[in-house]
């Protein structure tokens, strides 16, 4: 074990090491050295307090403006209220029964203040924050620590504020900087003018000026990009070395018969992408292709044509969907598109047809057994299903193509378990309706070739999107329900989406009471004002009840969510698709794949609780027919908040690729490839997948060249060590997720 792999207990002691591990997942000396500052501040350069978000854990540099000790009325104790400012905005610090702090928290002093931003009486505050005053004697620890250089502000926690982290990192630098080894090849460092890693680590933590910080970040940015791209290049090389059965389209087969029946022409984009897919299918190595495209761009049609081509070539194809609702929807729409071509071997079926079967975990035993028999004997050329397809007892006669829909919902183990069911590795087509910027595709899906569908089929109608500020303008919410009634009156249908189901296990009385009041709050301008607790998200069950009793009384309103029995979910979707339901109140279970052209309006409640890309996916469920679509984003968030800015961005454009950039720009960099998407800590600390396109592209080229010359990295032991640190058991899956 190298010095950088040593546990932190030896460096900082058991108690501090436990706090670092529990709150920040920092366990070794190497973890600590690579825990970089989030930003830097200079003495006298105060933090902008206007930008602080409620619920965010922050460290700010501010000046104390006013200090007031307020005794409690009618009981013992007091509250120390400290107002700090950046010269424009103010933030309140509150300490309970700590009046003695009045002696050191004096007006005019500057300090670092850390805590979680709360809201009390509509005023942002930090309750009992940690702090480090900087305007102390020149001989003080704080003054010496930050003298003559930038002050690093680290990603921190309530138990471990930034300046305490800084002390731990200083200790690690002093004792172990010399143990850091160089992972990048010398010729690569020289070609790109990169400073040594030891120097970069020192300058990232101890910069005297912005120029030193930039030099350090430039080097560390390269480390992150290059190690990631080496991992992906190794996977690409391993995949391309595998054998596969070529699956060339056969003239006069299923594909030609299907194309002849299409009531419309393929778009230029669909033709181009189909050509790329067919070219890959004809090779003796497995296809690994990512198909991304806008909502409604026709990805399913491209995937179906690929599956038909494989069936023509004697193989079988499978489409893996993340939810039963989506699997059922895919099965229904594919069978409808194929007609008797989907009834091969059945009475009335086409002579050249095949069988299209559905397999989900909740199917009855007899139906499930028959589906598995059709797959095993080869009668089922196309199988559509959920995770149930991955079970060991599911077998195929000759699996030639795996199509994975919405890849970001599956891990590498699930994907590979399905691919392993082929005698030889099957071809792989990954689909996602979430537009992905090029650099993200290179970073996350770097082992896949990419095809993009950005052209909508003709006949699609425009979708107009508007934000409904329900607290500021309750009449707008009333008008929302009027618009729903108007659309239903024209013979159309509507979705209402909520972030929560509402049949969760029994909650404490306080929470139950808050949930019961949610619906009353909907139309009340003062709802939640002055409340310390954010109310629970609106739910499907409660919202449906409110609508049927109130503004949508008399309409046919039904609910759909993930905890309904599978047959109930399928029945609701069938009835909705058949026009027997006017308004479907649902969770995000309808986010992808659901296709009901008669639906023209979608109302998204508590829209600020959804991500930008998710909102874009949801609104893609309307405007799928000849009538124009309408999407209404209902939110209680104030106009100046970042949440409202996200909603305004969604309302401002239908360009999913533009929205994906906005989404990533507004979220923290750590969330781009980190916990929010993969469930594990992000390895990207300096690299920006949006801003560093040139570095990522160049690193990809260099990594591909190095792996081609030395696949096992035998001549690069330090790079191999860095790679092992990144691609552990968890991160191997992380690399595969979008």
TrEMBL record:
Cite the entry's keywords alphabetically.
Answer: ATP-binding, DNA damage, DNA repair, DNA-binding, Helicase, Hydrolase, Nucleotide-binding
Per the record, the GO terms for biological process are: DNA repair
Q: Which InterPro entries match?
A: DEAD/DEAH_box_helicase_dom (IPR011545), Helicase_ATP-bd (IPR014001), Helicase_C-like (IPR001650), NA-bd_OB-fold (IPR012340), P-loop_NTPase (IPR027417), RecG/Mfd (IPR047112), RecG_dom3_C (IPR045562), RecG_wedge (IPR033454)
The record, for PROSITE patterns, names: HELICASE_ATP_BIND_1, HELICASE_CTER
One annotated GO molecular function is: DNA binding
Ranges for domain Helicase C-terminal: 476-665
Q: Show the segment(s) annotated as Disordered.
A: 500-537
Keyword flag Disulfide bond:
no
- Keyword ATP-binding: yes or no? yes
What domain of life does the native source organism fall in? Bacteria
Give start and end of each Helicase ATP-binding domain.
280-453
Its protein name is Probable DNA 3'-5' helicase RecG
The species this protein belongs to is Kitasatospora camelliae
Primary gene name: recG
